Amino acid sequence: MNNSNIQNIFVIAHTDHGKTTLVESLVSNRTIKKEEDSDITTMGSLFHYDLPDSVPLPLGLDSRRFLLNLIDTPTVDIGCRLKESDDALVVVDVVEGVCVSGQAMLQLERINSVLFINKMDRLILELQLDSEDAYQTINRIVETINVSIQLGGNGSNSKQKRIIDPVVGNVAFGSGVQGWAFTLENWAALYETKLGVPKEKLLRRLWGNNFFDDVNKKWVSNRVSEDGRTLKRGFCFLIYEPLRDIILAANEKNSEKLTKQLYYININLTNAELEQTSRKELICTVMKRFLLINNCIISMVVKHLLLPSPSPHNNII
Ligand SMILES: Nc1nc2c(ncn2[C@@H]2O[C@H](COP(=O)(O)OP(=O)(O)O)[C@@H](O)[C@H]2O)c(=O)[nH]1
Ligand SMILES: [Mg+2]
């Protein structure tokens, strides 16, 4: 193995935002049967990732294999452990938002980072936000992190800073405790197969001010149409609402509703699984099968932190 492909990734977050749970979830889910085409294996908190053969080997690398060491970094240690050249997986509790210590740390340390917006289950089950409010809550986190990134990292020794952007794919959303996570690309790929719309075209519609006018059948940038109708954002009706419907159906143990939702995403549950005694377990079973956290988080880290200078919209899988 080429040693240059081994990398420490610091998992950083404000206390209680879910670092330890995330790393434990990634480690424990290695026992889940791998998909046929999965290229991720794990060993302790070390994660192997093999770049798919379809992706040209980037210049300067002589191995397709990456070894990631995810370091669950206690908040008190961050200041002394991180160097300018380090890479980090930043975890933010979507309900609490970015806490001051987290922002200060990003400014100070000038690190490159990807973001995991954690505890999405709380947004759906506890706060029960409508989809536009959920979008605004998440977007505030993305904007706050970007302000921090831009304030730091301009020193001559620092790497070229990359802002985080869900469309680029360096932001993932999910629930560490439930074992699921996604980037916009997961949904774009799903709709590409379902609707025949090219993934790249769809990706841009899944974030930001992209609203669908279903009367005139076109995408527009204003939330209110010329004739006064309130339109829905791409993120809301193509991601958040389907996600919420699946989680709520599992939480209600409504097998009729759930089976219908799962049919669309090609997931079958056995009767035994549907009748699982605990609602929590049922949500985890369904969501892990749909969007297993390992696939999303590990490939995001490799693509956006480990591969040399990924260009925006550089899709390696
Ligand atoms: N609802 C919910 N709770 C979570 C999630 N991830 C972690 N937690 C809970 O948040 C608390 C703090 O998590 P922990 O991993 O210890 O945070 P750390 O201090 O950043 O390591 C624990 O009670 C976890 O069970 C999540 O995705 N959803
Ligand atoms: Mg911890």
From TrEMBL:
Keyword Protein biosynthesis listed: yes
Entry keyword set: Cytoplasm, Elongation factor, Protein biosynthesis
Pfam families linked: GTP_EFTU
Superkingdom per UniProt: Eukaryota
Entry-linked InterPro entries: P-loop_NTPase, T_Tr_GTP-bd_dom
TM segment ranges: none
An example molecular function term from Gene Ontology annotations: translation elongation factor activity
Annotated protein name in UniProt: Tr-type G domain-containing protein
